[in-house]
Amino acid sequence: MKILVTGGAGFIGSVVTRRLLEEGHRVVVLDDLSTGFADAVPRGAELVRGTMARALDVLTGDLGPFDAVLHLAARALIDDSVRHPERFWRNNTVESLTLLDAVLSAGVGRLVFSSTAAVYGQPERVPIEESAPTVPTNPYGASKLAVDLALEAYARAHGLASVSLRYFNVAGALGESGERHEPETHIIPLALDAALGEGAGREFAVFGDDYPTPDGTCVRDFIHVADIADAHLAALAGAVPGEHRNYNLGNGRGFSVREVLDAVARVTGRRVPTRSAARRPGDPAVLVASGERVRRELGWKPARPGLEEMIEDASRFRRARS
Ligand SMILES: NC(=O)c1ccc[n+]([C@@H]2O[C@H](COP(=O)([O-])OP(=O)(O)OC[C@H]3O[C@@H](n4cnc5c(N)ncnc54)[C@H](O)[C@@H]3O)[C@@H](O)[C@H]2O)c1
Ligand SMILES: O=c1ccn([C@@H]2O[C@H](COP(=O)(O)OP(=O)(O)O[C@H]3O[C@H](CO)[C@H](O)[C@H](O)[C@H]3O)[C@@H](O)[C@H]2O)c(=O)[nH]1
Known about the structure:
The chain is an alpha/beta fold. It folds into two domains: 2-170 and 224-249, 3-Layer(aba) Sandwich (Rossmann fold), CATH 3.40.50; 173-221 and 252-320, Alpha-Beta Complex (UDP-galactose 4-epimerase, domain 1), CATH 3.90.25. Helices cover 39% and strands 18% of the residues. The strands form four sheets. Strands 3-2-1-4-5-6-11 form a seven-stranded parallel beta sheet, with helices on both faces. Strands 7-10 form a two-stranded parallel sheet. The longest helix has 22 residues, at 85-106. It is globular. It comes from Streptomyces abikoensis. Belongs to the NAD(P)-dependent epimerase/dehydratase family. GO terms for molecular function: UDP-glucose 4-epimerase activity.
């Protein structure tokens, strides 16, 4: 297939692009490089630099025609979304609607969207099923939920085959593609920095140790980025014209912040220096995915569920870059 990957210069988009190329698909990346890197786009894919305002030209121009669009481009820092909601509504919601107009005008039949566990907010029950209430606790989650809802209506009205993949906590790396966020805010790369970094000031701040969880720290469901990439292949194959489906992508198992830090210490052989810090606003205590629907309907389940494997892969990627 010929596939447009938006956000393909970012962490997850570059891994998805790599997997698509491995499978023999042809890939064009559309990315404005706001948080991504041109040299992160895997060799073999063509990079077009720009926002979704360029999507129609790309989809209808010489690089086409396209069979599918994978839409990963977004801002994804929750804290930032609380301080600057306007940036998230514009960049995640308005930009996505611009892309959707282009997809419909160009007659592309399939679209897979990167949604998030943040659409659920504080879950009433875990593991979280796709039928759970969607009550996001921050503008990031809301800006993504709006697109899930738009897709549902657009698919039904215009015959689009669309899927929202609601990722939980994505970790690990695939070959030369991995996490290069600047600034980095995610637990595993920060814990690796704290364990392996040189000099002072790199203590890992544990955001809250008085949550109603077994050790008082938040619990998250980590999923290997290569499994996320494989789920995109399954979604492309399983998308149904005229329908929109939401799928949670996780392992169905939670690890507390402390358990992650212990696993980082085991993998690196180094202690992770920590300090206690205040809770981060909007952080739910526990987020764990139910993988039932995606297994039943797309036949997908994670092939790399081990937390230590994810940390090892992230650590290998970090070492290769330092
Ligand atoms: N990292 C996670 O754990 C996680 C969890 C759930 C959902 N997601 C979603 O997955 C997607 C990828 O996340 P990531 O961690 O790889 O982030 P990332 O910041 O590494 O990648 C995002 C990419 O999108 C590009 N981009 C942003 N806005 C753009 C725009 N308007 N036009 C063109 N390009 C634009 C950036 O330059 C970057 O290359 C995002 O949609 C994010 O919301 C990530
Ligand atoms: O320095 C840190 C960084 C993180 N944490 C804790 O570690 C856990 C995981 O935090 P991350 O920032 O790594 O990930 P989030 O769960 O906040 O967010 C991830 O999952 C979300 C879905 O809930 C969104 O999709 C988001 O884009 C994605 O990065 C949280 O409890 C957080 O409080 C710390 O204690 N200290």
